[in-house]
Amino acid sequence: MSGSIRYVPAVLAGKAARFATRLRGGGSAFPGYLANRLAPTLLSSLAAQFPYGVVFVLGSNGKTTTTHMVSEVLRAHGLRVFTNPTGANLPQGVTSALLAEATPTGKVRADVAVLEVDEGYAAELADILSPRVIVALNVQVDQLYRFYETERVADMMLDAATRASVRVVVNRDDPYLSKIDASALRSPVSFFGASTEVVAASAHGLNNAADTRSGMVGALDHPAESEVTAVAGRNVEITLDGNPIAVTLPARGLHYAVDAAAAISTARHVLGDAFRADAAAAGFSKMRPAYGRGELVPLRRDRSGEQVEFVMFKNGPSLQLNVDALDGAPERILMAIDEGTPDVSWLYDVDLSAFDHVDVVTGEKAHQIATRLAYAGIPIGVVEPDMEKAVELMRAFAPTSAGRQIWFVNYELMMIGRRILGYGDQEVARR
């Protein structure tokens, strides 16, 4: 069904709530929650609207970036894409994204839906939205206060994968996901990954969680349909069935290169015979960083001079991979974590030796960060828990030689930092 008059009250109420919450500076989930309560079948009406179906992107890290990459590659092929660009990946967040695009009857004018989905809700949402393609990126140590064990996260992703009707795209280099039982799936499996040489060149590898359950150490060596074979900054080579594709990443790092390999494989199975390597490369060449992931934002409101590069992390593996991607010690650094990341004990597992100092530490966890940095012998300039005051401190510094500060931030402080610098939730900064 392509929309219905019965959804009008719920959609209009959700749109009104979305307008009101955006005036207050946030609130991406409540409008979707309200619409779902008023019309419980609204979300399920999405699945039948898209000629190319629904794509799910799952993983401990990289969901937002990979969703963005898949979306832009599909747009480069001429498709209209519906997605949840700010990382709102719970059912109410997906519905909120729908409200931004939907007509009053719940109709979304798009050819395909590419959605990042929280692992805890993936199977439930798959039963509602009937995804054609599901991509599983990685299982990494994350949110143990919520999921308790990495094995549970793997099981959630593998369970959701059984719902894909056309293709499951899986990380060959992940110790858990590589052991997927293809006989339990409705659709074939394709694998992506990075070459042994590329992974070995990274200081700490890919940081995927060790498999403590199966008794088989490491990942299974499946042939990779899409594989990262060379990395030089933002320029990488990805082979698809052995044919090289030159790709320019929107942000630097091996993890982004592996996400790109996943995106290329996923787009191929969405498009079928219509997939073109040149169009995929063109999509990457024009691609801006995903929301808060390597974005460059002017430091000052007049948008002159210094820029801020946002480096968003949510757990130890994502922080480590982003630190490993640095090209030397940053000249000016802010580091910030707030209560959106309740347990920061994983900071002690991260090798921060690439930092020779940190200028400002901020957020509600500022003193915990400072303690970790002190144990590592890394000099700290100022500990200022208030983000607005911390931004003013960063603005007071003399310009850097590269014209760029680097801010390592968790999700909530990334959003707050962007707003302080003049960018709202949906506004995307340009390079």
TrEMBL record:
This is Lipid II isoglutaminyl synthase (glutamine-hydrolyzing) subunit MurT. InterPro entries: Lipid_II_synth_MurT, Mur-like_cat_sf, Mur_ligase_cen, MurT_C. Forms a heterodimer with GatD. The lipid II isoglutaminyl synthase complex catalyzes the formation of alpha-D-isoglutamine in the cell wall lipid II stem peptide. The MurT subunit catalyzes the ATP-dependent amidation of D-glutamate residue of lipid II, converting it to an isoglutamine residue. It comes from the Bacteria. The lineage of its organism: Bacteria, Bacillati, Actinomycetota, Actinomycetes, Micrococcales. Gene3D superfamilies: Mur-like, catalytic domain (3.40.1190.10). GO terms for molecular function: ligase activity. It comes from Microbacterium binotii. It is an enzyme of class 6 (ligase). Residues 339-393 form the Lipid II isoglutaminyl synthase (glutamine-hydrolyzing) subunit MurT C-terminal domain. Its EC number is 6.3.5.13. Belongs to the MurCDEF family. MurT subfamily. It catalyses: beta-D-GlcNAc-(1->4)-Mur2Ac(oyl-L-Ala-gamma-D-Glu-L-Lys-D-Ala-D-Ala)-di-trans,octa-cis-undecaprenyl diphosphate + L-glutamine + ATP + H2O = beta-D-GlcNAc-(1->4)-Mur2Ac(oyl-L-Ala-D-isoglutaminyl-L-Lys-D-Ala-D-Ala)-di-trans,octa-cis-undecaprenyl diphosphate + L-glutamate + ADP + phosphate + H(+); beta-D-GlcNAc-(1->4)-Mur2Ac(oyl-L-Ala-gamma-D-O-P-Glu-L-Lys-D-Ala-D-Ala)-di-trans,octa-cis-undecaprenyl diphosphate + NH4(+) = beta-D-GlcNAc-(1->4)-Mur2Ac(oyl-L-Ala-D-isoglutaminyl-L-Lys-D-Ala-D-Ala)-di-trans,octa-cis-undecaprenyl diphosphate + phosphate + H(+); beta-D-GlcNAc-(1->4)-Mur2Ac(oyl-L-Ala-gamma-D-Glu-L-Lys-D-Ala-D-Ala)-di-trans,octa-cis-undecaprenyl diphosphate + ATP = beta-D-GlcNAc-(1->4)-Mur2Ac(oyl-L-Ala-gamma-D-O-P-Glu-L-Lys-D-Ala-D-Ala)-di-trans,octa-cis-undecaprenyl diphosphate + ADP. Pathway: Cell wall biogenesis; peptidoglycan biosynthesis.
